[in-house]
Design a protein that fits this description.
heterodimer, A: Rossmann fold, globular, B: mainly alpha, 0% strand, Flavoprotein-like_sf (chain A), NAD(P)H-dependent oxidoreductase (chain A)
Chain lengths: 234, 58
């Protein structure tokens, strides 16, 4: 379960031409992490029991797709319709989704800024994702903020580097949007990297790791003191 | 722009020297984290000073 330090994430990818999509190939490479299962939906024929078993062992379910007419492509909608049987998902029945998190990773062909009231598309991504949010509510999942990948082909190398880390965090960081959890996530990645590099680099990276941990401790102390003063002022 | 910390400088240098995309991406993210930590430490120190020297509590 979430809270134990390791989130098991199932990424269900619905893309009609997944092999031809540079966005999806990039994300696939990024998702190559422990505790992440990359699961492309490639057929309209679905083994419902096997798919439900995959969902059951995950803490976080991420539906990933390119936005097709403001919704998921047919191949993913078909998967949802077949796999999420009432018996499986209704909290009063099996409650197979209860307590899990639902994330959406959506790729857009046009700039994300167009998705706002008064802008080109006139509707926000949050509005467009309401059916998924409703699904999360009905099945007692926690709905996560949607992860948006816009105009991947036009992104610079540095933007793509940013995207890589943000996407990896979206899949595996505990509480999204918490600076502390982001810090811990990055510390974890650096700690893992340190075990794989040559000795000289290891020493350099270890010093960096120490400084980042010290910063974190300093910040924790300061915030604790501020909280104490806040509490006294109340 | 404030002066970069030692860790940030090291991480930026490592990013510049590292051709592997994933490793480079991690260095860039850590450099950003290190800067954000400094910003937050400064803000928190400022808030702590301000609240400690609040004359209404003298």
């Amino acid at each position: 379960m979430i809270g134990g330090g390791f989130i098991k994430t199932l990424v269900v990818v619905g893309h009609p031409q997944i092999e031809d999509s540079s966005t999806q190939q990039f994300l696939k490479e990024a998702a190559n992490l422990p505790d992440v299962i990359w699961h492309p939906v490639t057929s309209f024929a679905v083994n419902v029991a096997a798919e439900q078993a995959l969902i059951k062992q995950a803490d976080r379910l991420v539906l990933q797709f390119p936005l097709y007419w403001y919704s998921a492509p047919a191949i993913l909608k078909n998967w949802l319709d077949q796999v999420l049987t009432r018996h499986f998902v209704y909290p009063a029945a099996m409650g197979g989704l209860v307590g899990k998190e639902l994330g959406i990773a959506v790729s857009l062909g046009s700039p994300a800024k167009n998705f706002a009231a008064g802008a080109g598309e006139d509707f926000s991504i949050s509005q467009i994702m309401i059916p998924f949010q409703a699904l999360a509510n009905k099945t007692q999942m926690t709905f996560l903020p949607t992860f948006i990948i816009d105009q991947f082909g036009y992104q610079s190398d540095d933007t793509k580097a940013n995207l890589l880390i943000d996407y990896q965090r979206y899949l595996t960081q505990e509480r999204l949007g918490h600076f502390d959890d982001k810090t811990n996530w990055l510390i974890g990645q650096l700690t893992d990297l340190i075990t794989t590099v040559p000795e000289e680099k290891r020493q350099r990276l270890t010093l960096i790791l120490e400084e980042i941990k010290n910063n974190q401790a300093t910040l924790d102390d300061l915030q604790m003191n501020i909280k104490m003063i806040h509490d006294m002022e109340d | 722009m404030a002066e970069q910390t030692w860790a940030t400088q090291q991480l930026m240098a490592l990013a510049a020297q590292t051709p592997q995309f994933k490793e480079r991406a991690l260095y860039l993210a850590l450099a950003e984290l290190s800067e954000e930590q400094q910003r937050r430490i400064k803000l928190a120190q400022g808030e702590l000073d301000g609240r400690t020297w609040n004359p209404s509590n003298w």
